Amino acid sequence: MNTVNRREFLRYLSAASALGALSYPLSALSKNTQANVVIVGGGFGGATCAKYLHKYNPNINVTLIEQNTKFVTCPFSNTVIAGINKLDYITQKYTQLNNKNSINVVHDRVTAVDTNSKLITTKSGKKLSYDRLVVSPGIDFVWDSIAGYDESLVTKMPHAWKAGKQTQLLRDQLVAMKNGGTVIIAPPGNPFRCPPGPYERASLIAEYLTKHKPKSKILILDAKDKFSKQPLFQNAWDELYPDMIEWTPGSQGGKVINVNAKKMTVTTEDDTYNGDVINLIPAQKAGNIAHVAGLVNDKGWCPVNQKTFASEKQKNVYVIGDACIAGKMPKSGYAANSQGKVCAMQIIADLDGRKPFEPSWINTCYSLVAKDYAISVAMVYRYSDKGIIGVKGAGGVSTVEADIKLRQLEAKYTTGWYHSITSDIFS
Amino acid sequence: MSKIHPISYLILFLILFFITTNLNASNEQRMLMLASPCAGCHGPDGISPGSIPSLSGKEPKYISMLMKAYKSDKQKASVMNRIAKGYTDEEIELISQAFKK
Lengths: 427, 101
Known about the structure:
The complex is a heterodimer.
Chain A: H1 6-23, E1 35-40, H2 44-56, E2 60-65, E3 70-72, H3 77-81, E4 91-93, H4 95-99, E5 104-106, E6 110-114, E7 119-122, E8 127-129, E9 132-135, E10 139-141, H5 165-176, E11 182-186, H6 197-212, E12 217-221, H7 230-240, E13 245-248, E14 256-260, E15 265-268, E16 272-274, E17 277-280, E18 284-286, H8 288-292, E19 302-303, E20 317-319, E21 324-325, H9 333-351, E22 360-370, E23 373-384, E24 387-390, E25 396-397, H10 404-426
Helix pairs in contact in A: 2-9, 2-10
Chain B: H1 6-35, H2 39-42, H3 60-71, H4 80-84, H5 89-96
Helix pairs in contact in B: 1-5, 3-5
C-alpha cells in the first residue's frame, strides 16, 4: 500500500501552490466568453469602455456607434475660448480605436433601442443586435428652462457646453467684442456637466481680456449659491484679475429667468443685465438616446446599479458618464473614463456568469485659472450600501495657501493630464 | 499518525491548487481594478505621453515606497497625497505590481 510521509506531503503542498500561482494569468479577469457588446456614444465614457472591453476580453465583438467622425473634447475647450489653443488641439480621432484596438467604429446615429429583442436601429437603417448595450450619450439641454430662450438662440448666446462649433463661436464673439465690453456667463443649477467648468472659463476669459481688452468686465450670474473649488477660484481672481470678475449667487439675484436675444439682455429675479457676449449654459439632462431607450428617471438622468452601471430601468443595458447617476462622483471626463473601465470589467464578469467585481474609481479635475496657474480636486471612490462614495480622509482640493510654484506645477500637469487621458482613450 | 491514505493527498492537492489559483486570480483582478484609473493621469499602461511622470517599468518597491510616503505626507506632491490616502497599504502593494514590465 502506498503511503506518504509528512515530508512528502509538504512537497505536495508547495507543488500545488506553485502550480496555482503559475496558472492565474489565464483566469484572472476574464473567461473570454464570446459576446456582442454595442456602445452608443464615443466620448470619454463610451470610447474608454470600448477600448477596455476589448483589452480585457478580446473575444468580445465591440461595436462603437458615434455620430461624429471626430470628437472635440469639452476638457481644454476653455483654452480654445481664451485663445491659448486652436480647435485642432482638442479634436480627437477614432482611427486608432478602429485600426489598433479592433473596435468596430460605426459613424451613425442610434434612433431606436428595442431592449426586448436586444436590437438597435440607426438613422441609416442599420440593425445591430447586442448581448449587452452600453449607453454613454453625455448630456442634452433642457431648452425651456429659461423664458425667452430656445435652441435657435445658441448662435446668438452660445452655451459652448458641447465642444466644437459652439466653442469656436464663443471664441470669435470674444475676439469681436470691444474693449470695455461685458461678458455674461450664466451657469445652471446642479447637477450639470463639469462643475468647475464655468469658473475655469471665467478665469481664462479674464486672462485674455486683461491682456487684450482690460476695460472689460465678466459677470457670472449663477443659479447656485456655491461652486466647485470656490475659495481657490475667488482667491486667484482677486490676485490675478482684481475687479474684473463679479460673481452673483442665486440667492442674491444671480439666477437667470428670462432672456431677450434681440436686446442682448438677461433678466434675473433682481435686475436686467446687458451683455456684449452672453454665454448662457442651460440646465441639463441625460443625452437624448437615453430618453428614447427608456433609461431615465423623472428628472431626466439615468439611475443605475452604482456597483456595475447596469440600468435600473432596462435589462442588459449599462449607462455610464455624465448621463448616469453615479453617487458622489461628479459629471467629469475623468469620472467617465474611470466608469468606462469599471463598466467594462463588470460586463465581462456578467458575461462570464460571475459576481460583480469590487469596484474602485478615481476622479481628478484640474482647472486652469491662468495659462500657468492651475488648481485641482481629486478623490478615490468606492462602492457602499449608499452607492458610490469618496474614501474618508482621501481627496480634496489643492491647498489654499500654496505658493506659486505649486500652481505652476499643477498647470504643467493639467496639460499632462489632457495628453494622458486622451491617449488612454483614443490611442 | 504519520501515515495517511494517498487519495487524501490528491484531494488536498486539488483543494490547495484551486484556492491558490483563485486567490491569485482575485489579486490579479483587484490589481487591475485598483490600478486602471491611474492611466487617466499617467497614461495607458502607465506610459505617459506628456508632463506627468510615467509609471511603466518602475520597480514595484519604488512605487509602493512613494505611495506610502504620499499617504503619510512624508513626501509632498500635488494631487498624489490626496489620492494615496484612498488606499490601504495592502492595496498600494497590489497597485505597485501593475506597471512592472
